[in-house]
Write a structure and sequence with these properties.
Structural class: alpha/beta
Radius of gyration: 23 Å
Shape: globular
Strand content: 15-25%
Helix content: 25-40%
Oligomer: single chain
Largest sheet: 9 strands, mixed
Length: 496
Amino acid sequence: MTFDLLLRGARIYDGSGSPPFRGDVGVIGDRIAAVGPLGRAEPGFVLDAEGLALAPGFIDPHNHAHNEAEGGILNIPEADNMLRQGVTTLIAGNCGGSAWPIGEHLDAVSQLGIKQNYATLVGHSTLRSQAVAENGRAPTSEELEALRSLARQALDEGAFGMSTGYFSTWVTTGELVAVSQAVAEGGGIYTSHIRNEGQGLVEAVAEALEIGRRAQIPVQISHIKTHGHLAWDRIGEVIALLDGATDVRVHADRYPYTACFSGISALLPQPVREEAGRRGGLASLQDPAVHPEVVAALREHMDLIGGPDSVVFAPLEPDPELEGRTLAEVADARGVPPEELVLSLVIKGGMSCVFHAMREDNLRTFLSHPLVMFGSDGHLRRPGHGFCHPRNYGTFPRGIGRYGRDARLYDLATGIRKASGMAADKFGLADRGYVRQGYFADLVLFSESQILDTATFKQPHQYPRGIKYVLVNGSLAVDNERTLPGNHGRVLRFSP
């Protein structure tokens, strides 16, 4: 047999979690044509993989590549910060927000030159904005049916399922079950930034499982975490819920860091945000009639996640005065209480932060759990542009190298499965996620001893080391840790 490309002499991890084996991989066109000892093959091109691990290209099941941060894939189609960490497939549209209409968005992306494969979910909040006339209330029966119809339309146009996030009290479990049933009928999945990741964590996980049971739909819990000290000691209850949910096909994803990234408005307790909505906008929070209560609620909420020292400003546009500084530092420099600074920045809008609110031992418990895969919760970023979370550059090599190889939470084969085959199975990515004959040749080759993240919270725009080659649909996209010209990624559309 003659191959277009022969990867010779690698330690092959096939994505299933099975132990590695030494062998070769032959590629013809965009597919893996053969796996095994291929000594007599006639290659068009040989890549010497001696001393390297060969794995399926990593799949990021949870990111915000559709349109957030610096504009998403339509503005940054090269997605270099993800590609260089071995990610060959992105699944966007998470946490309840997505592009709309799905078909038009995927058509637009397909007309770009993209370096990775790109798929999306549809956001429940996005659907709601199309179907429910006013915010702040439950849908009418006609609006609920419209939500269900739009969900079916999204799957027909290529969405792999529906995501939810940042629930308001008026979004009920019953509404989510009803819309999820329509998604389940189309063969999609339900992913959820659950209603509460702090003191209401256990109840929120239970709600996600209830939705799965009632709608008879697979459940993916997004970036599972214990956020704030009131949640830290409840992790045992969460694990018990996951382990006991034998009647729900449940998984979760997690990034290997103890800090999250979100807009500064996340510091506002949900009741305060809802009160602002009822009063006509965030500026109303400065009304003397409610201002003292808002400040007190802000102070209490900040205390739950470690106070103003735990909040680091990460504006999307470079701002020398704020970038990389803590809330406590900036408030002190300006001579204002931290709560007043937060309120003014929330009203101004556009400010993001890194929140150091999680505990290392809980992170390790989640990462090592057999139902948890890796997911960056990241964005597409331009190297060196602005302050950001290091997960945008380091999630997958950190999960495999720092927590697998070095901390020994799991073996390398398991770490690779958490980065590839688990997500492919859960999201229904046909012929991807494994090193198998007939599968698409999305592959990553790396040094087992060297793979490691280098991005930090002080210097987040740092590429990982040890990832030597990345192939996307049979074409070389990264060569000796250099991104090559050429665009080999494809838009992936759901097909039940």
